[in-house]
Design a protein that fits this description.
The chain is an alpha/beta fold. It is built from 13 helices and 13 strands.
């Protein structure tokens, strides 16, 4: 069987890239087609045949400026010579051309967020700093044709697979397509720990520091509740988060670190705070694998794995008051570490590969 894999871009490390890596391991001979590739930003695919076209000449750091160009690029990418094409996308890669003899399975994380469910957030803060006043009106002007093209592109795949019940509902709402839920792969074994007696103190969050991740909510709530919080990572919102902390001794900022470092931080934390609305969330499941309970917003993909009273808690509204109330009552000693770890096992990489292979085999048959 002749197989190809497609993704939006391959320039940095993230949850989407972890899905792509697992699928590459399933089909190591399959070439990976993408708009831009930066092996210095992500060094996981040296053994893969990564194919890029004319977009490779553009600076990858400015990829957020290229949605219209990217849409055109994938619209003209013809993969009709393949028996099976798997696109891994949260943007434009689903728009590729496939012939009648090609089965196209789209593993769609979520409909393109800046066109649909997070449009208002992107308009408020496009993420270009001092250039936001220039980017904002341009984005508003072009979003309607981009939405139309995105919707048309979503009608091309034969089957949709997605990461959570929440994402499946968004795909139905914006693309009018049904999607099968196969949760993304999480490296459970790398975060799993033997029983330890480390003293747990304070809370933790690690992720890209962008406005819609709402780490500012976690900071303000922890200060209000008198709880310590460690924020790990970097991103365009870092300076704003430091300002939100206002030199509080309760808030600690640490740079991005290795899996081993994250695991050590998790096993000495009372809980992982997950305040954003996301279609899934790899980091909180990693926290569960380390035996660290999760406090998440009661919206989005977190509802697929956070079980109140068993492995964490859900807070009702994306507000400081709502999160603060949960933090003040939170007592990590009431959760059983073994049950927390067990709740993460379902999301292991091996389970993902097994479920996806069964899905592919069924559709190809």
């Amino acid at each position: 069987m002749k197989v190809a894999i497609v993704c939006d871009w391959l320039t940095n490390v993230g949850g989407a890239e972890k899905v792509l890596l697992a699928i590459h391991q399933m089909y190591p001979e399959a070439p990976i087609y993408t708009s831009q590739y930066n092996p210095r930003g992500i060094d996981w695919f040296h053994d893969a045949e990564v194919k890029t076209g004319w977009m490779k000449i553009l600076p990858s750091k400015l990829r957020r400026l290229y949605p219209m160009i990217r849409q055109n690029y994938f619209n003209h990418l013809d993969l009709s010579d393949y028996d099976l094409v798997i696109s891994v996308t949260g943007a434009e890669a689903k728009s590729i051309k496939c012939g009648p003899n090609t089965t196209h399975i789209c593993y769609c994380h979520v409909p393109t967020q800046y066109y649909w469910q997070m449009y208002d957030e992107y308009v408020e803060n496009p993420g270009f700093g001092i250039f936001n006043p220039i980017v904002r009106p341009c984005f508003k002007k072009f979003v309607r044709p981009l939405r139309k093209a995105d919707y048309i592109g979503a009608q091309g795949p034969d089957y949709f697979v997605t990461i959570s019940d929440y994402a499946a509902k968004m795909i139905k709402k914006y693309y009018d397509r049904e999607a099968t839920v196969i949760a993304p792969p999480v490296e459970i074994k790398k975060f799993k720990t033997v029983k330890n007696k480390a003293k747990r103190e304070g809370f933790i969050n690690y992720s890209r520091q962008v406005s819609w991740k709402r780490q500012d909510l976690a900071i303000r709530a922890c200060i209000a509740a008198g709880k310590k919080l460690t924020i790990i990572g970097s991103g365009p919102e870092h300076n704003n988060l430091v300002k939100a902390a206002n030199n509080s001794k309760l808030i600690t900022f640490l740079p991005a670190m290795s899996t081993e470092g994250l695991r050590e931080e998790l096993i000495k934390s009372e809980g992982f705070i997950f305040p954003s609305i996301e279609p899934f969330g790899i980091a909180p499941v990693e926290a569960l694998a380390a035996g660290c309970p999760v406090i998440a917003l009661n919206e989005g993909g977190a509802r697929d794995y956070v079980k109140p009273g068993k492995n964490g808690e859900l807070f009702k509204e994306q507000s400081v008051d709502s999160l603060t109330k949960v933090l003040k009552k939170f007592d990590y000693t009431k959760y059983k570490r073994e049950e927390i770890i067990e709740s993460a096992e379902f999301f292991d990489v091996a389970n993902f590969k097994k479920r996806l292979k069964e899905f592919v085999d069924e559709k190809m048959a």
